[in-house]
């Protein structure tokens, strides 16, 4: 096999070049090639300096994550970085694209660094539940300072080249198009200076920055193991000699890589990328061109959906029925953008550019020049059918007609047009301009190129999209239903809202089912007839307990929206419980998990069996990005695999649930949803 690493001699400078598409991951062959390149330079007396650079779209984007579960191949990355650092001839890293993880560590092994202005450098290992295990936590505080090191390692957020220059992470900026040439010139300049091994540099900055950083971010890191391990390693760099620091880092790295959290986070890394792939699409299918998007409805959903496209530079025509609703909707969009600008997330001219792409109108006919139309009106089949019937007459041939429905049957909606092949669902999650998940619903007659277009567009607007089949609630909301139902039943049997919510929060959810109901509005979906009281939610809604917005719901709220258990709510629960003839009993936390979370796994298994999700990992992606399932548990299906599907089945059977056949099979064979 030919090596992905080659060398090029430029008089007294040896350039080591890696070309390992797509992202120059540091797989075994690359490591062997780098090691050989350094040896070649050292063995040749006429070579005075070395440049390491990459061909293709990026500098090394990290260790090869696919190797993590395979037997190790020598030389390991830490050895290669040490070999580079030990070179007696200066070694220069020439950086473009993204120098991430092990890639960033290779640059730290080099003696000097030069980068193009668009380059980024970072240590995102923490996002995989890991830490930079090739000396990154020990070299970064020496090269870039304690403050930058702890932030980069524990958050995984990369820094741009300009910032890298400021903090000393790079020594020089190259021309955007002249990196190869500039790096050789820089290398020649450094011959006189000689090597500058990072390990010999003193740690820079104030140690107190570490504790301050940990304190500020404690909430963000709740439940995660890796951020604390990263912080501890950077802290170790401030007090241990370099070699001891390296040994400490290794020990911490192995602890993390053997753990469930890192396995879960790595699973999600690949799951997110896998989700983009559509089963059963011929290789010659091409996406349709989308220049202008139409959105029907300027309410919270329609406005949020429009903002996604405007922010990505795609023109939007937004339609409402009345002028005041249109003005209100577009006004909120502008306000949201201006709030982002005030926080420094956007420049004022970007606000104007985005709003400049928006065409508000009251005329549905104005959608005639749109390539994709997303309907975001309220959930009523007759209304949706009427709109789609009209769109069929107005829209140009080949335009994609999408509904943002959360539950309704896309095939039935499609049947109200003469072009069901162009109809699909695009289910955004609220707030639509923030939440990353998009369920793209494939109808029975949806054309492959229409589906592919929607999936591609999702990526363009920064969403993580998952293909779902036509069923009530698609993937996410369908699995939410048994959870919500059981949560309610648990209240009737003796659990309190606070107990159920606590169990969910301790599990790692951002909030529990009742906190969520209070935030979203207890009155959502309420029939608005105070005399018709069929369940606890109806009873709460009837007495104005609509959630945070009315200062009371399942909980009471003070003016700062801090919740406290409510006597009135408890009374309502007790009344219902008594009416149903139930005797209250002590409910264990484990029972709450079994009845609210195991039931979700059971529903997920049915969704898979029915082909409503393409793969188990897609379900995991839905729950991570749409509902805040803790990423360190890898999504519900991955979590079930780690718990053991036999344990899940036993837990469900205890409470008399019918078990999905697929789940049963996996339990019997000790199988997994995610292979
Ligand atoms: N190892 C193996 N495969 C990788 C990879 C890696 N480090 N990074 C990306 N890939 C693969 C992706 O899975 C994807 O494969 P498919 O096309 O088969 O789906 C392909 O490369 C392209 O990736 P993206 O679709 O993500 O491309 P992008 O242009 O959107 O993003 C990127 C490029 C910013 C580099 C992004 O891929 C990324 O963030 N990669 C991971 C970076 C990372 O976490 N590095 C740290 C690795 S751990 C480490 O280095 C540990 C250590 O210290 C020892």
TrEMBL record:
InterPro entries: 3-OHacyl-CoA_DH_NAD-bd (IPR006176), 3HC_DH_C (IPR006108), 6-PGluconate_DH-like_C_sf (IPR008927), ClpP/crotonase-like_dom_sf (IPR029045), Enoyl-CoA_hyd/isom_CS (IPR018376), Enoyl-CoA_hydra/iso (IPR001753), NAD(P)-bd_dom_sf (IPR036291)
GO molecular function annotation: (3S)-3-hydroxyacyl-CoA dehydrogenase (NAD+) activity; enoyl-CoA hydratase activity; isomerase activity; NAD+ binding
Biological or metabolic pathway of the protein: Lipid metabolism; fatty acid beta-oxidation
One Pfam family of this chain: 3HCDH
Domain called 3-hydroxyacyl-CoA dehydrogenase C-terminal: residue spans: 473-557
Signal peptide region: none
Sorted UniProt keywords: Fatty acid metabolism, Isomerase, Lipid degradation, Lipid metabolism, Lyase, Multifunctional enzyme, NAD, Oxidoreductase, Peroxisome
A GO biological process held by the record: fatty acid beta-oxidation
Intracellular or extracellular location(s): Peroxisome
Coiled coil: none
Annotated ranges, domain 3-hydroxyacyl-CoA dehydrogenase NAD binding: 293-468
Catalytic activity: a (3S)-3-hydroxyacyl-CoA + NAD(+) = a 3-oxoacyl-CoA + NADH + H(+)
Family note: Belongs to the enoyl-CoA hydratase/isomerase family. In the N-terminal section; belongs to the enoyl-CoA hydratase/isomerase family.
PANTHER family, A to Z: 3-HYDROXYACYL-COA DEHYROGENASE, PEROXISOMAL BIFUNCTIONAL ENZYME
Subunit-structure text: Monomer.
Record's protein name: 3-hydroxyacyl-CoA dehydrogenase
């Amino acid at each position: 096999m030919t090596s992905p690493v080659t060398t090029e001699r430029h008089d007294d400078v040896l350039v080591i070049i890696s070309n390992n598409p797509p992202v120059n991951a540091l797989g075994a062959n690359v490591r062997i090639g780098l090691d050989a390149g350094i040896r070649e330079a050292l063995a040749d007396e006429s070579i005075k300096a070395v440049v390491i650079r990459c061909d293709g779209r990026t500098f090394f984007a990290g260790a090869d994550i696919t190797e993590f579960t395979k037997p190790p191949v020598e030389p390991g990355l830490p050895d290669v970085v040490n070999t580079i650092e030990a070179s007696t001839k200066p070694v220069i890293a020439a950086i473009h694209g993204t120098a991430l993880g092990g890639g960033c560590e290779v640059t730290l092994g080099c003696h000097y660094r030069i980068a193009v202005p668009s380059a980024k450098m970072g240590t995102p290992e923490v996002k995989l539940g890991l830490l930079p295990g090739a000396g990154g936590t020990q070299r970064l505080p020496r090269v870039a300072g304690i403050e930058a090191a702890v932030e980069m390692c524990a958050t995984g957020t990369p820094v741009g080249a300009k910032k890298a220059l400021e903090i000393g992470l790079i020594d020089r900026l190259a021309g955007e198009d002249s990196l190869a040439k500039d790096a050789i010139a820089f290398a020649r300049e450094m011959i006189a200076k000689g090597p500058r091994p990072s390990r010999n540099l003193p740690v820079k900055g104030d140690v107190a920055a570490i504790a301050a950083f940990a304190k500020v971010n404690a909430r963000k890191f709740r439940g995660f193991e890796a951020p604390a391990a990263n912080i501890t390693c950077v802290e170790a760099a401030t007090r241990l000699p370099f070699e001891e620091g390296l040994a400490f880092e290794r020990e911490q790295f192995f602890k993390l890589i053997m753990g469930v959290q890192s396995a879960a986070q790595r699973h999600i890394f690949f799951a997110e990328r896998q989700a983009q792939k559509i089963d059963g699409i011929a290789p010659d299918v091409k996406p349709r061109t989308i220049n202008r998007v139409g959105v029907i409805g300027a309410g919270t959903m329609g406005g949020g959906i429009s903002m996604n496209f405007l922010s990505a530079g795609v023109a939007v025509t937004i339609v409402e029925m009345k002028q005041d609703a249109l003005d209100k909707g577009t006004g909120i969009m502008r306000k949201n953008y201006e709030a982002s600008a005030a926080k420094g997330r956007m420049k004022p001219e970007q606000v104007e550019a985005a709003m400049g792409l928006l065409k508000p109108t009251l005329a549905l006919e104005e959608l005639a020049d749109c390539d994709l139309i997303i309907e975001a009106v309220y959930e009523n089949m007759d209304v949706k059918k009427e709109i789609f019937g009209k769109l069929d007459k107005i829209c140009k041939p080949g335009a994609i007609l999408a509904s943002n429905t959360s539950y309704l049957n896309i095939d039935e909606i499609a049947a109200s047009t003469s072009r069901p092949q162009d109809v699909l669902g695009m289910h955004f999650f609220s707030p639509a301009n923030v939440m990353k998940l998009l369920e793209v619903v494939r109808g029975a007659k949806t054309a492959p190129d229409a589906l592919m277009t929607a999936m591609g567009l999702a990526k363009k607007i920064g969403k993580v999209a998952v293909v779902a089949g036509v069923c009530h609630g698609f993937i996410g909301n369908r699995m939410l239903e048994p959870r919500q139902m059981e949560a309610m039943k648990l209240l009737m049997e003796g659990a309190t809202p606070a107990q159920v919510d606590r169990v969910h929060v301790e599990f790692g959810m951002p909030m529990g089912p009742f906190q969520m109901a209070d935030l979203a509005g207890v009155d959502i979906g309420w029939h608005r007839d105070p005399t018709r009281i069929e369940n606890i939610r109806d009873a709460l809604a009837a007495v104005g307990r609509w959630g945070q917005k009315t200062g009371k719901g399942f909980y009471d709220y003070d003016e700062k929206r801090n919740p406290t258990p409510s006597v009135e709510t408890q009374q309502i629960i007790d009344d219902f419980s008594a009416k149903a003839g139930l005797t209250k009993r002590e409910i264990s936390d484990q029972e709450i998990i079994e009845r609210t979370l195991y039931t979700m796994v059971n529903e997920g298994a049915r969704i898979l069996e029915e082909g409503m999700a393409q793969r188990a990992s897609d379900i995991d992606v839905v729950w991570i990005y749409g509902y805040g399932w803790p990423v360190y548990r890898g999504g519900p299906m991955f979590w079930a695999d780690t718990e053991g599907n036999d344990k899940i089945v036993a837990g469900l059977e205890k409470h008399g649930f019918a078990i999905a056949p697929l789940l049963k099979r996996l339990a019997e064979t000790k199988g997994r949803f995610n292979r």
